[in-house]
């Protein structure tokens, strides 16, 4: 007997120890349940993080655009019916974007600010001509929003005067390689011949075929936006705050602020429903685990009714009896969660070994985080105690006379 | 004179509700002094066990007064009754009723552990001493269910004494034992009574046993029909003798 242990703990542990087979089976049962929950959670968060990362690899978290131009009728009076035609939106610069950039850089939520001059253009090489999206960037800033330098397939990220970086799909379509020249023509007819310095692969075929990166100044010239930028791309420290931050920027600056959450609404909905359905599954696993614990403890109360009676005769109060059984539930839950976490960890190792890309790299990165194990352990203990509520009440309510005669 | 260990006045116990109600005990008056060694006899169904359960505070009377060691019990709630039971009353049951998951020593220390909440060296010292008294000093560390029937009953007696109770209630303490073990266990109860002055109320079917007690109380159909001193047993008047001893 450990001298620091209160009576209730001693009795709870001894009872579990004595009912060896029963205790073992229910702990394994809890363990399997916890293992599935932990494994599912780790897999899901790994999968989702991976999906989000891939989706955002070629996107800014928030894109700021100039407010739409609105047509206002000159004459508005009684009796006059006006039909206001919606105005076509021309490519415009964001007003005073340098000041805005400086201001946004001061926001603690914002990790990077990258002004971009972007618009439609044609890329021509020989007989081939492709419609592309021209992006005039400051590579140092842009890299912190979209990791272009890290996604180069060939060459280097250099967009000085007369230089451009294009996607691998466009390069294939135009038959261009690093060092080749191509001609870019803007919508207003400005044209420039540029040397391809690098090829990128952002993991998205459309982006690889469409985006053409040039220096900010070259972009401004080709798009007829001298001194201006068409949008400002932002990266945040916390992805989930994007919508919130976007709304605050929109309110403050009067610009349109599109967060990735809004621009990928369907994708985000898919992620959310995936999470909800896994929550439902996890809830029902926890429920069935708790019923398992409860049923084992109910049987144990019946089996031990004589001992409960004796303990009561020797001065154990109802509250003490209740605690003994609540503790057994908690201990079973806790031990089960440790077993379950170990099981989940082995499942994940197995998964890592088996689920691989054709090139042998892991499909995506997952692992059991210590926080998840701690939550599982705490959660399973609480579930165990809750499951023990009913059996504990029965144990406490047992009439000692009946129990002893038992 | 000191308070009696047990004082019953008009104690009644009824079971069932309104129409089907029946009374098992019809007004029991009884006084048990300190150091008394009394037998409670009677045919089965006479209410002996019911009376013992009431005195042991395991059940509540329907009417009447029940005073244990000077404490009125009518107004106490379940927790207070449990505490009083743990401190003042020791139980020895027919089927020894040890807790199999614990050793002999731990079983004996159990009432102390329950009362104090945490184990300490003193309670195991006390358990060892009591086990020595019942002749089981060498079995301290053995699990309760590894002991023979007679040994288990002796452990149960040691356990009943752990809290130094004023009164030990024994329900057929030798009913489950062979003659030899029964004699040993009875002798042990007697010895504890003489040496520690603990009062005993022993329910028994065995007339041989009853006649070795100082006082014989006979219960028939829920009434005490005879209550006499048994001069033969100890060669002294137990009621007066014990009263003097405690003063």
Automatic annotation (TrEMBL), chain A:
PANTHER family found in the cross-reference section: LIPOPROTEIN-RELEASING SYSTEM TRANSMEMBRANE PROTEIN LOLE
Domain MacB-like periplasmic core, first and last residues per copy: 23-251
Q: How does it sit in the membrane?
A: Multi-pass membrane protein
Listed A to Z, the keywords are: Cell membrane, Membrane, Transmembrane, Transmembrane helix
> Could you tell me which species this protein originates from?
Thauera phenylacetica B4P
Where found?
Answer: Cell membrane
Protein's name according to its UniProt entry:
Lipoprotein release ABC transporter permease
Source organism superkingdom: Bacteria
Q: Which family does it belong to?
A: Belongs to the ABC-4 integral membrane protein family. LolC/E subfamily.
One GO biological process this protein is involved in is: lipoprotein localization to outer membrane
Q: Write the lineage as a comma-separated list.
A: Bacteria, Pseudomonadati, Pseudomonadota, Betaproteobacteria, Rhodocyclales
TrEMBL record, chain B:
Q: In its keyword annotation, does this UniProt entry include Lipid metabolism?
A: no
Q: Which GO terms describe its cellular component?
A: membrane protein complex; plasma membrane
Q: Which CDD domains match?
A: ABC_MJ0796_LolCDE_FtsE
Q: Which domain of life is it from?
A: Bacteria
Which Gene3D superfamilies does the entry mention?
P-loop containing nucleotide triphosphate hydrolases
One GO MF annotation is: transmembrane transporter activity
Q: Which keywords appear in this protein's UniProt record, sorted alphabetically?
A: Antibiotic resistance, ATP-binding, Cell membrane, Membrane, Nucleotide-binding, Transmembrane, Transmembrane helix, Transport
User: GO biological process: any one?
Assistant: protein localization to outer membrane
Signal peptide stretch: none
Q: Which InterPro entries match?
A: AAA+_ATPase, ABC_transporter-like_ATP-bd, ABC_transporter-like_CS, ABC_transpr_LolD-like, MacB-like_ATP-bd, P-loop_NTPase
Q: Where is the ABC transporter domain?
A: 6-246
Instruction: Work out whether the entry's keyword set contains Membrane.
Output: yes
Protein family membership: Belongs to the ABC transporter superfamily. Macrolide exporter (TC 3.A.1.122) family.
Name of the featured protein = ABC transporter
Q: Which organism is it from?
A: Thauera phenylacetica B4P
């Amino acid at each position: 007997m450990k001298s620091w242990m209160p009576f209730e703990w001693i009795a709870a542990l001894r009872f579990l120890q004595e009912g060896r087979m029963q205790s073992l089976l229910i702990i394994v049962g809890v363990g399997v349940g916890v293992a599935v929950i932990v494994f599912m959670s780790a897999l899901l968060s790994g999968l989702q993080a991976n999906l989000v990362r891939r989706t955002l690899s070629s996107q800014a978290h928030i894109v700021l655009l100039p407010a739409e131009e609105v047509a206002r009728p000159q004459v508005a009076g009684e009796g006059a019916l006006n039909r206001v035609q919606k105005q076509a939106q021309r490519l415009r610069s964001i007003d005073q974007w340098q000041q805005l950039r400086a201001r946004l850089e001061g926001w603690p939520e914002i990790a990077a600010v990258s002004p971009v001059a972007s618009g439609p253009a044609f890329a021509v090489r020989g007989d081939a001509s492709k419609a592309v999206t021209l992006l005039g960037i400051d590579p140092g800033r842009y890299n912190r929003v979209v990791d272009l330098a890290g996604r180069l397939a060939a060459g280097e990220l250099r967009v000085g005067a007369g230089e451009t970086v294009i996607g691998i799909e466009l390069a294939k379509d135009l038959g261009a390689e690093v060092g080749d020249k191509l001609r870019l023509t803007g919508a207003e007819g400005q044209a420039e011949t540029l040397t391809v310095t690098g090829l990128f692969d952002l993991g998205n075929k459309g982006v690889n075929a469409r985006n053409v990166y040039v220096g900010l100044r070259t972009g401004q010239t080709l798009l007829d936006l001298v001194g201006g930028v068409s949008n400002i791309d932002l990266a945040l420290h916390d992805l989930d705050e994007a919508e919130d931050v976007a709304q605050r920027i929109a309110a403050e600056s009067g610009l349109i602020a599109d967060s990735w959450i809004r621009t990928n609404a369907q994708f985000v909905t898919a992620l959310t429903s995936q999470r909800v359905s896994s929550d439902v599954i996890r809830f029902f696993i926890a429920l069935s685990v708790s019923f398992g614990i409860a049923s084992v403890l109910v049987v144990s109360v019946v089996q031990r009714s004589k001992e409960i009676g004796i303990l009561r005769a020797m001065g154990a109060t109802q509250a003490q009896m209740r605690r003994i059984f609540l503790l057994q539930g908690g201990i079973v839950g806790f031990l089960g969660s440790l077993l379950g976490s170990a099981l989940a960890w082995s499942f994940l190792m197995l998964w890592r070994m088996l689920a691989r890309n054709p090139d042998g790299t892991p499909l995506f990165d997952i692992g059991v985080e210590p926080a998840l194990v701690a939550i599982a352990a705490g959660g399973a203990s609480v579930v165990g105690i809750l499951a023990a509520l009913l059996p504990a009440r029965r144990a406490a309510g047992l009439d000692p006379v009946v129990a002893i005669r038992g | 004179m000191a308070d009696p260990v047990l004082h019953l006045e008009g104690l009644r116990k009824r079971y069932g509700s309104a129409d089907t109600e029946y009374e098992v005990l019809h007004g029991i008056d009884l006084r048990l002094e300190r150091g008394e060694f009394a037998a409670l006899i009677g045919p089965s169904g006479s209410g002996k066990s019911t009376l013992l359960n009431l005195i042991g505070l395991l059940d509540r009377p329907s009417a009447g007064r029940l005073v244990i060691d000077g404490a009125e019990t009518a107004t106490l709630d379940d927790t207070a009754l449990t505490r009083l039971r743990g401190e003042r009353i020791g139980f020895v049951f027919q089927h020894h009723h040890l807790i199999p998951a614990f050793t002999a020593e731990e079983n004996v220390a159990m009432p102390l552990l329950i009362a104090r909440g945490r184990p300490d060296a003193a309670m195991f010292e006390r358990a060892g001493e009591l086990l020595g008294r019942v002749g089981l000093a060498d079995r301290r560390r053995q699990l309760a269910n590894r002991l023979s029937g007679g040994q288990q009953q002796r452990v149960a007696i040691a356990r009943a004494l752990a809290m130094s109770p004023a009164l030990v209630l024994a329900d057929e303490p030798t009913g489950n034992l062979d003659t030899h073990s029964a004699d040993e266990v009875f002798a042990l109860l007697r010895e504890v009574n003489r040496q520690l002055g603990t009062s005993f109320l022993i329910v028994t079917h065995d007339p041989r046993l009853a006649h070795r007690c100082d006082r014989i109380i006979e219960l028939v159909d829920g009434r005490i029909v005879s209550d006499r001193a048994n001069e033969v047993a100890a060669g002294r008047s137990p009621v007066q003798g014990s009263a003097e001893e405690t003063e």
